[in-house]
């Protein structure tokens, strides 16, 4: 083994080393999988799943290409190592790899659209991310908030 300098990239992970620690993100990988799955020009969306996800086996739905669906799920699964905000949505969709339908593919595409929209250091002036949240009481929206974060994020997981 030999030391070849500071590590910048490793297996799709971007690595930034500083005195404050080591920060990992997959921004470049995220852009690559958007391009690979022809989702780089899609419209963006604010959440990876609807508020109340309604995924089921969809036995009467029209089947889609299993290998294509699995490729999309696999790409997203690898991305979850630095994107905990995607874990639940990807795992919901991964349940249906044995017999994916158009309904399931639509939800996977929604995750890609969210990936395009996800706010990681979006502010070009400060490189800060924006956080947000909503609260419901039953089916009624009670409150919402959006706030620019106090610190500069070095990765989408940190954001």
Can you walk me through this structure?
- By secondary structure, this protein is of the alpha+beta class.
- It has 2 domains: 26-118, no CATH class; 127-154, no CATH class.
- The chain has helices spanning 27-36, 66-79, 87-94, 102-117, and strands spanning 9-10, 13-18, 21-25, 128-137, 140-152.
- α2 packs antiparallel against α3 (87-94).
- The model has no long low-confidence stretch (mean pLDDT 80).
- This is Reverse transcriptase Ty1/copia-type domain-containing protein.
Strand portion: 15-25%
Tell me, briefly, the overall form. Answer: flat
Order of adjacent strands in the largest pleated sheet? 1-2-3
Structural class: alpha+beta
Mean pLDDT, to the nearest integer, reads 80
Which stretches are poorly predicted, pLDDT < 50 over at least 5 residues? none
Outline the biggest β-sheet.
Answer: 3 strands, antiparallel
Distinct helical segment count: 4
Radius of gyration: 18 Å
The number of distinct β-strands equals: 5
Distance between the termini: 34 Å
Protein name: Reverse transcriptase Ty1/copia-type domain-containing protein
Organism: Tanacetum coccineum
Provide a brief overview of the structure.
With 159 residues, the chain is α+β, with helices and mostly antiparallel strands. The chain has helices at 27-36, 66-79, 87-94, 102-117, and strands at residues 9-10, 13-18, 21-25, 128-137, 140-152. This is Reverse transcriptase Ty1/copia-type domain-containing protein.
